[in-house]
């Protein structure tokens, strides 16, 4: 099992995860990286993310970086008993995480 699938499986088994700190959500870092590509599992779930600098993040790493304000144009919200990473709603389907190219 690769590290992306392993981290996603660990993420899916999480419950009682702390919700995002509102201060982190509003304090944006000017050095944020954009996510430019994603990795999906066989069910089509996002399990990995590639940034514009070429870094490859598993789901847990991406959640942590998004909460810390290090990733641009993504939001973290609490649903289904855990934190979820989503694209910021801007009305542009092409830049949604699910619509990005795969790596």
- Largest sheet data: 3 strands, antiparallel
Q: Strand portion, in percent?
A: 25-35%
Termini Cα gap: 17 Å
Count the DSSP helices.
Answer: 3
- Mean pLDDT reading: 86
Report helical residue fraction: 10-25%
Gist?
The protein is an alpha+beta fold. It is built from 3 helices and 5 strands, in the order H-H-E-E-E-H-E-E.
Protein architecture, described:
It holds the Pfam family DUF3892. This is DUF3892 domain-containing protein. InterPro entries: DUF3892. The chain has 103 residues and is an alpha+beta fold. It has helices at 3-12, 22-26, 59-67, and strands spanning 35-40, 46-51, 56-58, 74-79, 82-87. The protein is globular. Helices cover 23% and strands 26% of the residues. Residues 16-28 have low confidence and may be disordered. Strand 2 (46-51) and strand 3 (56-58) form a beta hairpin.
Which short descriptors sum up this protein?
two-stranded antiparallel ribbon, three-stranded antiparallel beta sheet, about 100 residues, alpha+beta
Secondary-structure topology with pairs:
Layout: H1 3-12, H2 22-26, E1 35-40, E2 46-51, E3 56-58, H3 59-67, E4 74-79, E5 82-87
Antiparallel strand pairs: 1-2, 2-3, 4-5
